[in-house]
Structure formats: structure tokens, C-alpha cells
Write a structure and sequence with these properties.
Blueprint lengths: L2 H12 L2 H15 L3 H22 L1 H9 L21 H11 L7 E5 L9 E5 H18 L7 E4 L9 E4 L4 E4 L9 H11 L3 E4 L1 H13 L8 E4 L6 H11 L2 E7 L6 E4 L6 E3 L4 E6 L2 E6 L10 E2 L2 E5 L10 E9 L4 E2 L5 E2 L1 H4 L9 E10 L2 E8 L5 H15 L5 E6 L16 E3 H5 L1
Length: 431
């Protein structure tokens, strides 16, 4: 019995339905609330969090007093914008002063650090159990209930590990680092034998395996798929759903646990998981206040993921408020004149080009862009011409110097955690 097997077994048991039963009931109750009831509940939670942070956190006490804010000044949710914004840099420098619970009661969690140095945050067990309860409730709504058989292609296994079956959770882990022509049929056989009701993974990992299966003429029938941790691109969704015989439900969240967006069951966009956080959306990112982690309060915490909002979101149960998650501002392309072009715009370059499996923009300096692409099974020179024309049409030849390069799948750049970014800046490569 391997150490990894023991670790994953214990991890599941500590987050199993037996442990999170009370939190499942809590989240189901939040789903059932009317918009008015939910707002009143969120307002009460926010006020309690603010007052606790003011009294117990040295960081917030100093921050608010320096801003001239007294406890009595914040009377409801409408006053939240009076509070100063907290940045990642502030959290990095003041983590010990932010927490309001003894360190021995908390668990450290780290971001991957793909856009700079890693960020360390604390979380308590109730916040971990609430997080799992949200997963449980959402996935149940999508048609999957723990512990039905599931396949996972995330970062759980390292390069040297190919697969691992955790019996207590009925989970077949497959290494996302070892997806290639040699392992594709082995993965296919293992998945069929496992008979999963669901599959989860990074979009890039599921997409890579789907491409391998497509080239070998193999298909699967897995009712639902769950993606997260990367921007899900339209062409990835199409290939994954076809090869796996599945329907994808995407999820957006952060290591800091300050925002949680789930794809609507009718796939029209994303709704805010009820009672999880208070979210403000700006042109250059989101400002969020977590309502689930009282021990390490993050109030008006600034992120840099750009959301395309739904205009005039309906006043209904679980309204769709985000049409598309465009991704980090740092993964935009910058033209010679300083204009930034979002990754959401650039995903259109692969539309209707069947002969290209992967494409990745590498920003070397403002106005200089290299587009690496991996030719697919049906690649022709016409595919390359269509790609070049699409890029130049979207970005304009005057504002960019382009270089197009045919590469192998191994030359596509991934983060140390195995995640794929459609746009990579030179700074990210150096980091």
C-alpha cells in the first residue's frame, strides 16, 4: 500500500459525507432561499465577519482605523464599499496578523504562484467542510453523487505515477502528466473498466486525452464531466463532450476561497453559489468577501480575473450573473501601443479549423507575439493559412509582429502544476 494511497484515502474520509452532513443541509438551505432571504442572511454574516475582524485581527484593526472607519460606520451591505481593498501583496505581508484563530487550529494552503511568488493563506476545518458541501450539492444537481465511480485527471499524481484507484472514494486517478499516444489506450481501458458516472480534470488534460482517443477512433460514454482551474475554451468543450459522450459543467474558484461560480445547468453562464461570498466585479478583476472562512477573513479582497457579466441579470433563484470567465488580466496580449487583447477574444482563432489540435500565444515583449501550434491529424497548409489570417484579422498587423511556429505537444508550455494557459507572457516563463 503506497503512501499516496493512504494520503488520498485519509483525505477523502476527512471530507466524506459523514463529516460534511450538517454543512450539506446548510448549503441546501441556502439554495432554497429567495433572493431577499439570501441577501438578508449574507448581510448578517458580513456584519458579523466585519466586526470580528475589527476586534480580533491586528491587520484589519489597523487598516480600518487608518482609513478612519469605526465599527458603527458599517451598518449593512450597502456600506461595504466604504472599506479599503485588500490586495494579494497585503495578504502575503500580513498573513499572521490577518488570522483570528490559533495557528494550531488552521491549515495552510498555497496558491501555485504562476503569476508571481506563491501566496499562503489559512483555512479552518469548517471552511474546508463547507467547501466540500458546495461541491457535493452542485455535483448532485448535475447528476453525480459521491461515492459513485469517478475518474480524475488533475494534479494528484506525479509524472512517475500512471494511475491510482482509491477504493473508499471510488475514484480512479490518472496522471495528467502522462497523456500521450503510448498511454491513451491504457487510460481508455482503465476508464472503461472503472465504469465512471463522472470524470473531472483540468480542461487541458481532458482535452489532451480526448484528442488521443479521437485519433485512435475510440469513444467513451461518461454522463457528466467537471472542469475547473483553467479557462475552458469552446473548442476544448466541443472535443471533450464528443469523445467522452459527456456534458461538461465548469466551476470557477480560488485557493483563497473568496469566490465560487458554478456553470448553470442550462449552460447559459455562471451563477454565484448562494451564501459563499459577496462579489463585486470591476473592469480589471473581482473584489470578493468570503463568508465561509471566518478564521482567516478576506474582506474586499482584490483578484485579477476578468468576468464578462450578463446584462440585466434576472431577479430569480440563482440568477446567471457571469456570461464568461475571460481569465487573468495578466494573460492578455499587449500591442505596440499598449492596447490589451483578452484571451476570450483570441479563442475565436481556432474556430472552424479542424486540423490544429493546440495553439498557444507567447508574448515576448509588447507587440511581439509567437503563436505555437500543434498540427492535428487533418492538418494541411490551408489550416495554417486560415490560422494566420484569423490572428491578423483579430489583432491587426500594425500593432503586432507575428511569428507562427509548428511544434510538438511536448513543446506546449504548462505551469509547474500542470495547468495550461492559452496566453503565456515571457515573465510567466521566467517565473
Amino acid at each position: 500500500m503506497s503512501l499516496k494511497y493512504i494520503k488520498e484515502t485519509v483525505k477523502y474520509c476527512l471530507r466524506s459525507r459523514r463529516m460534511i452532513r450538517r454543512y450539506i443541509s446548510e448549503v441546501e438551505g441556502l439554495y432554497a432561499m429567495s433572493p431577499q432571504e439570501l441577501r438578508a442572511r449574507n448581510e448578517q454574516c458580513f456584519l458579523q465577519l466585519f466586526r470580528l475582524a475589527y476586534d480580533k485581527s491586528p491587520f484589519y484593526n489597523k487598516l480600518y482605523k487608518e482609513a478612519g472607519i469605526c465599527k458603527e460606520d458599517i451598518k449593512g451591505l450597502d456600506d461595504i464599499r466604504k472599506l479599503p481593498i485588500v490586495t494579494k501583496e497585503m495578504v502575503k505581508a500580513n498573513a499572521e496578523e490577518i488570522r483570528i484563530a490559533p495557528k494550531w487550529k488552521l491549515i495552510k494552503n498555497h496558491t501555485s504562484g504562476t503569476t508571481g511568488t506563491p501566496l499562503m493563506v489559512y483555512e479552518d476545518w469548517p471552511s474546508i467542510w463547507r467547501e466540500q458541501a458546495y461541491f457535493y450539492c452542485y455535483r448532485k444537481r448535475c447528476g453525480y453523487t459521491y461515492p459513485q465511480p469517478i475518474v480524475s485527471l488533475r494534479g494528484n499524481l506525479e509524472k512517475k505515477e500512471l494511475s491510482l484507484n482509491i477504493h473508499v472514494s471510488n475514484t480512479l486517478y490518472l496522471s495528467s502528466y502522462n497523456i500521450n499516444q503510448q498511454t491513451a489506450e491504457l487510460y481508455y481501458d482503465k476508464i472503461r473498466k472503472h465504469k465512471p458516472v463522472a470524470i473531472e480534470g483540468y480542461p487541458s488534460a481532458l482535452y489532451s486525452l480526448a484528442l488521443m482517443l479521437r485519433d485512435k477512433g475510440l469513444t467513451l460514454q461518461i454522463p457528466v464531466a467537471f472542469t475547473s482551474s483553467e479557462t475552458l475554451l469552446d473548442h476544448q468543450r466541443e472535443v471533450i463532450e464528443k469523445q467522452f459522450g459527456t456534458k461538461i459543467y465548469d466551476h470557477y474558484g480560488t485557493t483563497e476561497r473568496t469566490i465560487r461560480l458554478s456553470e448553470a445547468l442550462n449552460h447559459t453562464g455562471y451563477y454565484e453559489d448562494p451564501g459563499y461570498s459577496i462579489n463585486e466585479y470591476t473592469a480589471d478583476g473581482e473584489i470578493t468577501t468570503s463568508l465561509i472562512n471566518v478564521s482567516f477573513p478576506l474582506i474586499r479582497y482584490k483578484g485579477n480575473d476578468i468576468m464578462q457579466l450578463v446584462e440585466d441579470a434576472a431577479e430569480e433563484m440563482l440568477p446567471v450573473v457571469v456570461k464568461q470567465i475571460e481569465g487573468r488580466k495578466s494573460t492578455c496580449l499587449t500591442g505596440k501601443d499598449g492596447t490589451e487583447y483578452s484571451g476570450a477574444l483570441l479563442t475565436r482563432v481556432l474556430k472552424d479549423i479542424d486540423g490544429i489540435d493546440y495553439a498557444q500565444f507567447v508574448q515576448e515583449r509588447p507587440g511581439a507575439v509567437k503563436l505555437n501550434f500543434v498540427p492535428g491529424k487533418n492538418f494541411t497548409e490551408q489550416c495554417r493559412e486560415k490560422l494566420e489570417n484569423a490572428v491578423q484579422e483579430l489583432l491587426g498587423e500594425e500593432n503586432f509582429d507575428f511569428a507562427f511556429s509548428s511544434v510538438t505537444p511536448d513543446e506546449i508550455i504548462y505551469t509547474p502544476g500542470g495547468k495550461f494557459n492559452f496566453i503565456v507572457r515571457q515573465r510567466q516563463i521566467l517565473d
